[in-house]
Specification:
The structure is a single chain. The chain is built from 18 helices and 15 strands. Strand 7 (about 115-120) and strand 8 form a beta hairpin. Helix content is about 35%, strand content about 15%.
């Protein structure tokens, strides 16, 4: 197949993309000034009508044949433009795989080997971004067709036939470090005023399907039968009586481990998620062409915390990674003094595409805290009276487990949502000194400047309590 990719199917029948050749073409960027941003207008519908299957769904291989064509313009953010913003990871979106042959190298994910056309110029993008653009075009077809029946996808995406979308890899000239720093200072505004922020988590697979089903079950209990949690928190997650108490079908070990796999996708570990989801007024989650509101995800994490099952899920997931296929595994959860163990036969093992840190669900709660600080409520939680943005020091602590390809973003990703910097002008104000994003500064200097800023603005040395034992540091 032409265009630098081919379609094939995984063992579970879901489509996959494999790199077959590399084309890297750079396009000239329109200049942007302060308070301006580039927006790519993606032509969401194919240029020819795709063939349909007998069920009325688009044929995946036919959909892939049609090139993604876009155009670009520069707009002033003060003019309140109507657009979507994309939140995604540049690399491998999954991390955990059921089949070892599906694992691709970091280089294959990060190399821009897929072509899109922007204003007549070929631009190369990464595999995951290309898949996200295809998905958005595909869901646009779905939402436009369902516009008369009130389908949930239509409501969440608020479809516009001439929609613009902001994508960092395309709308920021990544090779211009000065522009990159200037645009980073606008990120909070870009995501906060977007009509919809689409969190692209990668393709749909068995894990995401099981996760979606479980999240719906837990979400329904949290919102309609919350009193059950008082009973459930006295039980282990794998207790056979759990399904009877919840009055639902049994959730088996494989399905729980698939939820763990889904919640460990790369997107959840990104430092920028705290800002992109924290300020979004209409954030949605997208896997493949399945779309759901972020409240379902946040509600799931709230349920797991209140039922005291977070540790159970983490223990089960780690055992699925460490054990072999079909091996009998006895797991003792030492984080809970409940005197019980979980014993199970692991039906499948996960294959990890990259080194994994210990799962830390606190970042979900930290994102909820950011949303609450900006006065954004959800069905699973309510804002406390007087809540406001958190100090930078607390944000850096709460989001410490997150990751960034450029380690400077471990600071820059949180400037726009901290109480020290107004969202209209992050990086400009600050009593005594300031932090201005600069991707030309050495990493050591960025961290030292940040430490000085926090100590000077807070008037205390609490930051020093964050010093980590060198033996715990990532090598």
């Amino acid at each position: 197949m032409s265009g630098g990719f081919e379609a094939r199917f995984k063992h579970d029948g879901s489509p996959a993309l494999k790199v077959t050749e590399s084309h890297t073409v750079y396009v000239g960027f329109l200049k942007v000034r302060a308070d301006e941003a580039r927006f790519g207008g993606i032509v969401l519908t194919p240029y020819s009508e795709p063939k349909r299957s007998t069920t009325g769904d688009f044929s995946v291989d036919e959909e892939l044949r049609y090139p993604v064509k876009c155009y670009m313009k520069v707009v002033d953010l003060n003019d309140s433009p109507d657009y979507e913003a994309l939140s995604y990871t540049w690399g491998d979106p999954l991390i955990l795989y059921r089949y070892q042959e599906d694992v691709m190298s970091r280089e294959q994910w990060y190399n821009p080997t897929y072509n899109v056309t922007i204003d007549g110029n070929l631009v190369s993008v990464t595999a995951n971004l290309f898949a996200a653009m295809l998905s958005r075009r595909f869901t646009a077809e779905i939402t436009s067709e369902r516009s008369n029946n009130g389908a949930v996808e239509m409501e969440l995406l608020k479809y516009r036939p001439d929609s613009y979308i902001w994508i960092d890899a395309i709308c920021i000239n990544q090779t211009d470090l000065q522009e990159r720093a200037a645009q980073v200072s606008l990120m909070c505004r870009i995501y906060s005023i977007a009509r919809t922020v689409i969190a692209w988590l990668g393709g749909e697979d068995e894990a995401s399907q099981d996760a979606y089903n479980i999240m719906n079950i837990l979400g329904e209990i949290l919102t309609k039968r919350r009193e059950l949690i008082q009973t459930l928190k006295t039980m282990r997650m794998l207790d056979p009586q759990v399904s009877r108490i919840m009055n639902t079908r049994t959730i088996d070990i494989l399905q729980w481990s698939n939820l763990y796999s889904f919640l460990n996708r790369s997107w959840f570990k990104r430092a920028w998620v705290g800002q992109e989801m924290g300020v979004a007024k209409n954030p949605i989650i997208c896997t493949g062409i399945k779309i759901f509101n972020i409240d379902l995800l946040m509600g799931t994490m709230t349920f797991l915390k209140e039922a005291r099952w977070t540790s159970d899920l983490g223990t089960l997931g780690r055992a699925s990674i460490e054990s072999g296929h079909g091996e009998q595994k006895e797991v003792v959860d030492r984080q809970r003094d409940c005197g019980s163990t979980m014993s199970f036969k692991n039906p499948f093992a996960f294959y990890s595409s990259q080194p994994m840190r210990v799962w830390d669900p606190r970042t979900f709660e930290a994102t909820q805290n950011v949303r609450a600080g900006f006065g954004i409520q959800g069905s699973a939680f309510k804002c406390k009276p007087g809540a406001g943005p958190l100090p930078l020091c607390r944000l850096l602590s709460q989001f410490r487990p997150t990751e960034a390809s450029d380690l400077r973003d471990k600071v820059y990703a949180f400037l726009g949502i901290s109480e020290e910097f107004p969202t209209s002008s992050p990086g400009i104000l600050g009593p005594g000194n300031t932090i201005v994003p600069n991707y030309q500064s050495p990493l050591k200097e960025v961290y030292l400047d940040t430490a000085r800023f926090i100590i000077n603005t807070s008037g205390n040395l609490d930051l020093l309590s964050q010093v980590q034992d060198p033996s715990f540091r990532k090598q």
